[in-house]
């Protein structure tokens, strides 16, 4: 974009898609904001009118609300930490020339192709089940009490299952980043006297920061709205131990059938997502520039 | 300080014997150039010395100590790569300081050393830039700076100038030669540019298919090539190699005459031919002449040679400047 006129043309050409995207976003958002201030209950359709900020105050006063927020953030943070750390390690491993590299890589990627509810059911029924689960029989084989994963560590179990699903994605992106690192840089560092650990710390890791940033941003978008895994495994329980903000919204919309409150929850979720987004862009946006 | 001795060094990648067996002694302070056609194993040999590849057999001694099994960092050598291999996320200063940091030198002393190196290499104004914001020549200098600060026993260069344009290459060639004269450190330099080889080297090692064809000073190689391969490889334009009756007349399989050792005449001479192409360089004229029975021969004449495509010329080798090679390609004396 060198000249004034080419810049103006570029703006003109971009305008239709920008307007389209803006409308695409603003209409549902405006409707949600509208509903969030209305009394709109499917179980008592005759009661309508303005609710003021009562839909919002209900959320803020709900005993589960702050738990839901912190669970949401814990889920996002936990899955990010696990997928990034293990993603880097697995990427380093499968980047090595080994026999059967092709099939191995496909195996590593495959969990990503399993739909979330299916993945969650597999873990719930085949691995974590206290009677039939593989982990339970392993524990019994070792003479220990089976662990009641979903009852005792509900959020931990969900974080684990979600990490299992998202690890391949992180690994794949980080592996491509790793493969684009020139071997001469590593060799130069080796000649400069850097140990394997220093080479990782000073050459490989900085090379991967952009890929790591991309993984964090993309995963955060999807992880903030994790629902299927919770629905399939714990239903937000026991009690509300594994309830997240999206799950609370689901309960208001489809169990309590209170569209107004659900809309208010939705707006709160949008605000939360924006806070997270601002935080992420502030702390990591610079890694995306070249 | 920087004597390097290779004894029967072999290197195979699987079934491919890239280096069948090499014996070579590089004296302390020497500027040694490896030349040879592409794929002949120059880089591999350099990487063996650097320790970036393991030898299949044989020993490498550095400073009289067996270094065959030492990791690269412990050999005290510094390498400058063709792609420069700078660390893109570090500033020029951090790049140059990296080896010192890895050696555990305290940051203040390391900074001082890096600044001193930068001064030598005219990099002082670029210390806070990232490699991406530098020109090719500047990057090259940073790579050299990173090598200098380590005060290595020897420098290894793998075609360091091949990414630069002709003018810059000429400059950097001089700078590296000057650097060698200042530091007096052993340098091993890989290139396929024979101007670099001829102008920079104390000693040229000509390689072909992983074998050393000849080792010697530039002029030794130019005046007394040990075989037809070296004769054809050293010197530009290439030496004319002729076979047949003319060679048999002097008891050789092949004879060689350099383009600059042929007399041009329009009236009489040993070989008659027609000019195919005349390249006028101003100072010199290169004639590509189709000689009956010998194909194309290259002749180098003065800038005043006034011959064109289609003209008839007679060529005569200067007395005593003909090289004779036997059945096995070796020079006959
Ligand atoms: N890792 C490897 N595995 C198998 N063969 C290799 C490997 N590295 C190099 N070779 C082979 O070894 C031979 C010598 O390679 P090398 O890189 O040393 O050539 P070179 O003389 O540096 O050539 P150039 O002038 O093109 O850089 C080549 O035939 C190459 O194919
Ligand atoms: Mg090479």
From TrEMBL, chain A:
<dbReference type="InterPro" id="IPR035906">
    <property type="entry name" value="MetI-like_sf"/>
</dbReference>
<dbReference type="Pfam" id="PF00528">
    <property type="entry name" value="BPD_transp_1"/>
</dbReference>
<dbReference type="InterPro" id="IPR051393">
    <property type="entry name" value="ABC_transporter_permease"/>
</dbReference>
<feature type="transmembrane region" description="Helical">
    <location>
        <begin position="262"/>
        <end position="281"/>
    </location>
</feature>
<feature type="transmembrane region" description="Helical">
    <location>
        <begin position="211"/>
        <end position="231"/>
    </location>
</feature>
<feature type="transmembrane region" description="Helical">
    <location>
        <begin position="153"/>
        <end position="175"/>
    </location>
</feature>
<dbReference type="GO" id="GO:0055085">
    <property type="term" value="P:transmembrane transport"/>
</dbReference>
<feature type="domain" description="ABC transmembrane type-1">
    <location>
        <begin position="69"/>
        <end position="280"/>
    </location>
</feature>
<feature type="transmembrane region" description="Helical">
    <location>
        <begin position="12"/>
        <end position="37"/>
    </location>
</feature>
<dbReference type="GO" id="GO:0005886">
    <property type="term" value="C:plasma membrane"/>
</dbReference>
<keyword id="KW-0813">Transport</keyword>
<feature type="transmembrane region" description="Helical">
    <location>
        <begin position="65"/>
        <end position="94"/>
    </location>
</feature>
<comment type="similarity">
    <text>Belongs to the binding-protein-dependent transport system permease family.</text>
</comment>
<keyword id="KW-1003">Cell membrane</keyword>
<keyword id="KW-1133">Transmembrane helix</keyword>
<protein>
    <submittedName>
        <fullName>Sugar ABC transporter permease</fullName>
    </submittedName>
</protein>
<keyword id="KW-0812">Transmembrane</keyword>
<dbReference type="InterPro" id="IPR000515">
    <property type="entry name" value="MetI-like"/>
</dbReference>
<feature type="transmembrane region" description="Helical">
    <location>
        <begin position="106"/>
        <end position="123"/>
    </location>
</feature>
<keyword id="KW-0472">Membrane</keyword>
TrEMBL record, chain B:
<dbReference type="Pfam" id="PF08402">
    <property type="entry name" value="TOBE_2"/>
</dbReference>
<keyword id="KW-0547">Nucleotide-binding</keyword>
<dbReference type="GO" id="GO:0015423">
    <property type="term" value="F:ABC-type maltose transporter activity"/>
</dbReference>
<keyword id="KW-0813">Transport</keyword>
<dbReference type="InterPro" id="IPR027417">
    <property type="entry name" value="P-loop_NTPase"/>
</dbReference>
<dbReference type="GO" id="GO:0005524">
    <property type="term" value="F:ATP binding"/>
</dbReference>
<dbReference type="InterPro" id="IPR012340">
    <property type="entry name" value="NA-bd_OB-fold"/>
</dbReference>
<dbReference type="InterPro" id="IPR003593">
    <property type="entry name" value="AAA+_ATPase"/>
</dbReference>
<dbReference type="InterPro" id="IPR013611">
    <property type="entry name" value="Transp-assoc_OB_typ2"/>
</dbReference>
<dbReference type="InterPro" id="IPR008995">
    <property type="entry name" value="Mo/tungstate-bd_C_term_dom"/>
</dbReference>
<feature type="domain" description="ABC transporter">
    <location>
        <begin position="4"/>
        <end position="234"/>
    </location>
</feature>
<dbReference type="Pfam" id="PF00005">
    <property type="entry name" value="ABC_tran"/>
</dbReference>
<dbReference type="GO" id="GO:0055052">
    <property type="term" value="C:ATP-binding cassette (ABC) transporter complex, substrate-binding subunit-containing"/>
</dbReference>
<dbReference type="InterPro" id="IPR015855">
    <property type="entry name" value="ABC_transpr_MalK-like"/>
</dbReference>
<dbReference type="GO" id="GO:0016887">
    <property type="term" value="F:ATP hydrolysis activity"/>
</dbReference>
<protein>
    <submittedName>
        <fullName>Sugar ABC transporter ATP-binding protein</fullName>
    </submittedName>
</protein>
<keyword id="KW-0067">ATP-binding</keyword>
<dbReference type="InterPro" id="IPR047641">
    <property type="entry name" value="ABC_transpr_MalK/UgpC-like"/>
</dbReference>
<dbReference type="InterPro" id="IPR017871">
    <property type="entry name" value="ABC_transporter-like_CS"/>
</dbReference>
<comment type="similarity">
    <text>Belongs to the ABC transporter superfamily.</text>
</comment>
<dbReference type="GO" id="GO:1990060">
    <property type="term" value="C:maltose transport complex"/>
</dbReference>
<dbReference type="InterPro" id="IPR003439">
    <property type="entry name" value="ABC_transporter-like_ATP-bd"/>
</dbReference>
């Amino acid at each position: 974009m060198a000249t004034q006129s080419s810049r103006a043309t570029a703006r003109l050409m971009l305008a239709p898609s920008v307007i389209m995207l803006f409308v695409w976003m603003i209409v549902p958002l405006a409707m949600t904001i509208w509903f969030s201030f209305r009394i709109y209950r499917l179980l008592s359709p005759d009661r309508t009118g303005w609710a003021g900020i009562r839909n919002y105050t209900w959320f803020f006063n709900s005993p589960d609300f702050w738990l839901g927020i912190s669970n949401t953030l814990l889920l996002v943070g936990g899955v990010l930490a696990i997928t990034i750390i293990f993603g880097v390690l697995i990427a380093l491993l499968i980047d090595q020339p080994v026999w059967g590299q092709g099939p191995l890589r496909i195996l590593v990627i495959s969990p990503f192709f399993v739909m979330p509810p299916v993945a969650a059911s597999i873990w719930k029924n085949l691995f974590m089940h206290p009677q039939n689960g593989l982990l339970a029989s392993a524990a019994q084989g070792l003479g220990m009490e089976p662990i009641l994963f979903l009852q005792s560590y509900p959020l931990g179990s969900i974080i684990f299952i979600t990490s299992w699903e998202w690890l391949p994605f992180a690994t794949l992106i980080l592996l491509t980043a790793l493969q684009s690192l020139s071997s001469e840089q590593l060799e130069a560092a080796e000649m400069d006297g850097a140990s394997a650990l220093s080479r990782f710390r000073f050459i490989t890791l900085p090379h991967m920061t952009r890929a790591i940033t991309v993984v964090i941003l993309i995963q955060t978008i999807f992880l903030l709205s994790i629902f299927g895994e919770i629905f399939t495994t714990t239903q937000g329980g026991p009690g509300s131990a594994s309830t997240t903000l999206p799950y609370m919204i689901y309960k208001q919309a489809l169990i309590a059938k209170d569209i107004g409150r659900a809309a208010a929850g939705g707006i709160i979720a949008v605000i939360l997502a924006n806070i997270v987004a601002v935080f992420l862009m502030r702390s990591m946006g610079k890694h995306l520039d070249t | 300080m920087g004597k390097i001795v290779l004894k029967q060094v072999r290197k195979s990648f699987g079934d491919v014997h890239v280096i069948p067996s090499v014996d070579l002694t590089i004296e302390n302070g020497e500027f040694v150039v490896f030349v040879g056609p592409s794929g002949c194993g120059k880089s591999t040999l350099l990487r063996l010395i650097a320790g970036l590849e393991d030898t299949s057999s044989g020993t490498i001694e550095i400073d009289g100590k067996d270094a065959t099994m030492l990791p690269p960092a412990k050999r005290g050598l510094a390498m400058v790569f063709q792609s420069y291999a700078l660390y893109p996320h570090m500033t020029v200063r951090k790049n140059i300081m990296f080896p010192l940091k890895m050696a555990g030198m305290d940051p203040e002393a390391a900074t001082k050393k890096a600044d001193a190196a930068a001064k030598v290499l005219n990099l002082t104004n670029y210390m806070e830039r990232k490699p991406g914001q530098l020109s090719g020549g500047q990057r090259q200098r940073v790579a050299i700076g990173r090598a200098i600060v380590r005060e290595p026993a020897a420098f290894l260069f793998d075609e360091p100038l091949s990414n630069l344009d002709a003018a810059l290459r000429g400059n950097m060639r001089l700078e590296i030669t000057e650097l060698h004269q200042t530091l007096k450190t052993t340098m091993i330099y890989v290139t396929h540019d024979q101007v670099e080889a001829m102008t920079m080297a104390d000693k040229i090692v000509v390689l072909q298919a992983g074998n050393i064809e000849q080792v010697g000073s530039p002029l030794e190689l130019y005046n007394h090539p040990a075989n037809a391969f070296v004769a054809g490889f050293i010197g530009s334009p290439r030496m004319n190699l002729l076979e047949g009756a003319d060679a048999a007349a002097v008891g050789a399989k092949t004879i060689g005459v350099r383009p600059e050792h042929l007399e041009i005449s329009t009236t009489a001479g040993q070989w008659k031919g027609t000019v195919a192409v005349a390249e006028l360089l101003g100072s010199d004229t290169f004639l590509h002449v189709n000689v009956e029975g010998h194909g194309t021969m290259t002749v180098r004449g003065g800038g005043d040679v006034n011959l064109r495509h289609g003209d008839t010329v007679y060529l005569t080798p200067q007395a005593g400047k003909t090289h004779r090679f036997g059945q096995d390609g070796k020079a006959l004396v």
